[in-house]
Amino acid sequence: MSSPTIQYEYRPEHFANSEPNKYTAATLRREEMVLNVGPQHPSTHGVLRLEVVTDGEVIVDVVPHLGYLHRCFEKHAESLPFNQIIPYVDRMDYVAAMNSEHAYVMGVERMLGIENDIPKRVEYIRVLVAELNRLASHFIAIGTYALDIGAYSPFLWLIRDREHILRMLEWTCGARMLYNYIWIGGLFYDLPVGFEERCSEFIKYLKPKLTELQQLVIENKIFVQRTAHVGVLPLPTAINYGCTGPVLRGSGLRYDLRRVDGYSVYPELDFEVPIGKGEVGTLGDCWDRNWVRVAECRESLKIMEQCLEQLTQNYPRTRDFNPQAVVPKKIRPKAMDFYARAESTKGELGFFFRTDGRSDVPVRCKARACSFHNLSVIGDISRGALLADLIAIIGSIDIVMGEVDR
Amino acid sequence: MELTEFVIKSLVILVIFGLTLLIAMYSTYGERKVAGFIQDRLGPNRAGPFGILQPLADAGKMFFKEDFIPAQANKWLFIAGPCLAMLTALMTSAVIPFGDSIRYDGLEVAVQAVEANIGILYVFGIVSLGVYGVMVGGWASNNKFSLLGAIRAASQNISYEISMGLSIVAILMMTGSLSIREIIEQQHGGNWNIWYQPLGFIIFITCAFAECNRTPFDLPECETELVGGYHTEYSSMKLGFYLFAEYINMFISSAVISALYFGGYNYPGMDWVYAQLTSAFGDVAGHNVATLIGTAAFFAKALFFVFFYMWVRWTLPRFRYDQLMNLGWKNLIPLAILNIVITGTGVLFLKPIITALLN
C-alpha cells in the first residue's frame, strides 16, 4: 500500500459541479470577484450560502443559495397523522418551537371546529410558554447579532439568561428545545407545581437585565455606528417581499398578528406593538430591527405577567383539571383547504392544509415560513453595502435555516 | 572581567526572552480567564489547579494537529508568513529597558538586552515589518477571505503607524532623545509623560490597539466576516505562531506604553525605597533589590495594559473598515499633529516661563 502524496487535487470542474453559481468568470466584470459566504461560514446563522459579488469590499450583488438543511417537512407531513406532525413542526424553527406548535395546533383545531372548546387555562398556558419561547428566540437573535458585530460578551450574557427559560420549559415538558408540549385540543401536561412562582421570579430577575442589555449593546456608540443607516429596508419593499415580524415592524408598520388576528387569548391581554422609528438612523435600518426586538422582549414580559395573574387567580390549578380533556381521539377534518397563521418570533408563520375528509393525514401541508420570506429581501437591501454590512444585515433579519429550508 | 560581563548579559537576554514568551503564553490563559470573568463563567479550570496548565495543553494540541498546506498555496511563503510574524514580534523586546541595572563584582549591567540610542525607532521599524508576516501569509494561502484579511491588515497597520509615529514625535520633542532608557530616566520622580501628553497617550494607545489587531480594530482576522481573516487556512503550530505573535505584540506594546507614558520602572517613592535598601543591605545588594522592585513595577504596569487590552476586547463591538480608516486618517492624524503643535508651543514658550517661575 502506497500512501498518496497529494491529499486533495484541485480540479476546477469539480468546483463548478458542486457549487453552481449564478455568476461565472464570463459574466463578471474585471474588477469583480465572487466570494462564497457559506455554507460553512461562522455568521450565516446555519448553512446559508451567499454568492456575493464584490468589488473590493463593496457588494455588487448577493444571491442566496438555499436547501442545505432541507429535511422534507412538507412531504413528511403528508404521511403522518396530524398529531404526529407536531414534533416535525418543532424542528422547523428550532429556537422557537412553542410558537410554531401554537400556530400549527390552532390551525388543526380550527379545521376540527374545536377551537372554542379549549379550556381558558390551557389557552393561557399556551400563551405563557409561547411568550417565554419568544424571549428565548429574541435573545438568540440579539446575542448572535452582537456577535456578528464583534461584541462577544453580550452573546454569552443572553445565553445565560436564555438558559433560565430553557430550564423552565424543560420543567414543563422534559425537552429543552423541541417540546411537543402543545397538543391538538390541549396540552401534554399541566404546568408543574411551583412554575408560576418561578416564572414571576424570573420576570423580576430579567427586567434589570434587559435594561443592562439595552445600555451595553443597543445604545453602544460603536454598535449604533455599525447598524444605523445600514441595510435600510423601505416599507414598500418590505411589504412587496412579504416580510413580517420584527423586520416589517422595524420598517415602521404596526402589524402584529397577535393584534391583527387576535387569536387565542391575546385580545384579553394588554401589550403594545413596538415599531421602528428611525431614532438614530434611517427608518428600517438594522438598528431599528434590533430595537424592535428588545422592545418586544419587554412586551413579552408584560404578557407573561398578565398570564401568570390569570393562571393564579381566575383559572387556578385544580386537582381534577385535565389538560388533555378536549384532545380528540381521532383527528379527521372535513375535506377542505385551510390556512392558519400566527405570529411566530420572526413573523407570520402560516400553515396551509388540504384535507380530503377520508384519511387521518393531510393531503398537503405547506408551511409559510417567515424566515424564508424575510431572507428573500437580502439581495435588495445589501447592494452597495460593505462586506461587514452584509454580515450585519443577515444578522438583523434573524433567520433560522431550519425554517428557511424546512 | 569580560567573561563575567558576557555571562551576565547573556543571562539577562535569556531571562528577558524567556519572560516575554512566558508572559505571552500566560496572557492567552489570562485572556480566557478575563473573558470568563466578564462573561459570567469560569474560564479554563481543568488543566492543573485553576487551569494553570492550560497554555501547555493548548501548545501540545497545536503541535499534534495536522500541519495542512492547501494544494494551491504558495508553499514557501505560506511557511514564511508565520515565521516572519513570530520573528518580528520577538525582536522588539530587545531594546526595552525592563529595569535599572544590576551590580555584580564591580560591574554594572543594564536590565536590557541592547542599549540602543535609537531604541524607539528600532521598535517602530520592527513593528512595521510585522505586517509582512500577515500580508505574506494571507496572500500565500490562495484564499479570498485570507486575501481580504491581508489587505485590511496592510492598510490598517500602515495608516495607524502614521498617527502612532506622530504621537511619539511629541514625546521626543519633550525629552530630546530616542533612547527608551533615557526617556524613562527623565520621568523619574513622578514626572510621568502622561501628565504632559494625555492626548498623545490616547492616540498612541488607540494606534497600539490597531497595530496589535485587537478588538475594536481586529478587522484583519474578524471571525464573523472573514472566517479567520489572514489565518483562515492555517492550522497546527503555524496558526499557533500567528496567535502567539499577537500576544507577544500585545505585551510589547503594553511595555512600550508604560515606558513612554507611565515612567517605566519608576514608581512613586522609589528614591526613599532606594535609600532604605542601600543603607540596609549595602551598595550592591540594596541596589540590586531596588532594581528588581523597579522591574516588578514595570511588569505590573505592562500587565495592567495587557489586562486593559483584554477588557476592551470583551466589551466593545468591532469597527467597520471605512469607519476605521476615517478614524485613522480624519481624526487621529489631525489630532496628533495638533498635539505636536501644542507640545512645541509648550516646550518653546511655556517651559522657560515655568522654569523661571520655579527658580
Automatic annotation (TrEMBL), chain A:
Q: Where is the NADH-quinone oxidoreductase subunit D domain?
A: 148-406
Query: What GO cellular-component annotations does this UniProt entry give?
Result: plasma membrane
Q: Which InterPro entries match?
A: NADH_Q_OxRdtase_suD, NDH1_su_D/H, NiFe-Hase_large
Is NAD included in the keywords of this UniProt record?
yes
The cross-references to Pfam families, in alphabetical order and at most eight, read:
Complex1_49kDa
**Coiled coil region boundaries:** none
Topology in the lipid bilayer: Peripheral membrane protein
Q: Is this entry keyworded Plastid?
A: no
Q: What broad class describes the main subcellular location of this protein?
A: membrane
Q: Which GO terms describe its molecular function?
A: NAD binding; NADH dehydrogenase (quinone) (non-electrogenic) activity; quinone binding
Keyword line = Cell membrane, Membrane, NAD, Quinone, Translocase, Transport
| Cellular compartment(s) | Cell membrane
Q: Which reaction does it catalyse?
A: a quinone + NADH + 5 H(+)(in) = a quinol + NAD(+) + 4 H(+)(out)
EC code: 7.1.1.-
Superkingdom, natural source: Bacteria
In the record, the note on similarity to other proteins reads: Belongs to the complex I 49 kDa subunit family.
Instruction: Explain the purpose of this protein.
Output: NDH-1 shuttles electrons from NADH, via FMN and iron-sulfur (Fe-S) centers, to quinones in the respiratory chain. The immediate electron acceptor for the enzyme in this species is believed to be a menaquinone. Couples the redox reaction to proton translocation (for every two electrons transferred, four hydrogen ions are translocated across the cytoplasmic membrane), and thus conserves the redox energy in a proton gradient.
Q: Spell out the subunit comment.
A: NDH-1 is composed of 14 different subunits. Subunits NuoB, C, D, E, F, and G constitute the peripheral sector of the complex.
The UniProt entry, under NCBIfam families, shows: PRK06075.1
Give the protein name, as stated in the record. Answer: NADH-quinone oxidoreductase subunit D
Q: What is the lineage of its organism?
A: Bacteria, Pseudomonadati, Bacteroidota, Cytophagia, Cytophagales
Could you tell me the gene encoding this protein? nuoD
From TrEMBL, chain B:
InterPro entries according to UniProt:
NADH_UbQ_OxRdtase_su1/FPO, NADH_UbQ_OxRdtase_su1_CS
**What reaction(s) does this enzyme catalyze?**
a quinone + NADH + 5 H(+)(in) = a quinol + NAD(+) + 4 H(+)(out)
Q: Name one Pfam family in it.
A: NADHdh
Quick one: where is this thing mainly located? membrane
What is the uppermost EC class here?
Answer: translocase
Bilayer-crossing regions:
6-26, 76-99, 119-141, 162-180, 239-262, 289-312, 332-354
EC number(s) per UniProt?
A: 7.1.1.-
The family database entries (PROSITE patterns) matched by this protein are listed as: COMPLEX1_ND1_2
The compartments listed are: Cell membrane; Membrane
Is Acetylation tagged as a keyword?
no
Instruction: Return one Gene Ontology term, BP aspect.
Output: aerobic respiration
Q: What's in the keyword line of the UniProt record?
A: Cell membrane, Membrane, NAD, Quinone, Translocase, Transmembrane, Transmembrane helix, Ubiquinone
Q: How does it sit in the membrane?
A: Multi-pass membrane protein
A single GO molecular-function term is:
quinone binding
How the protein assembles, per its UniProt entry? Answer: NDH-1 is composed of 14 different subunits. Subunits NuoA, H, J, K, L, M, N constitute the membrane sector of the complex.
Give the family from UniProt: Belongs to the complex I subunit 1 family.
Q: What does this protein do?
A: NDH-1 shuttles electrons from NADH, via FMN and iron-sulfur (Fe-S) centers, to quinones in the respiratory chain. The immediate electron acceptor for the enzyme in this species is believed to be ubiquinone. Couples the redox reaction to proton translocation (for every two electrons transferred, four hydrogen ions are translocated across the cytoplasmic membrane), and thus conserves the redox energy in a proton gradient. This subunit may bind ubiquinone.
Its protein name is NADH-quinone oxidoreductase subunit H
Question: What gene is behind this protein?
Answer: nuoH
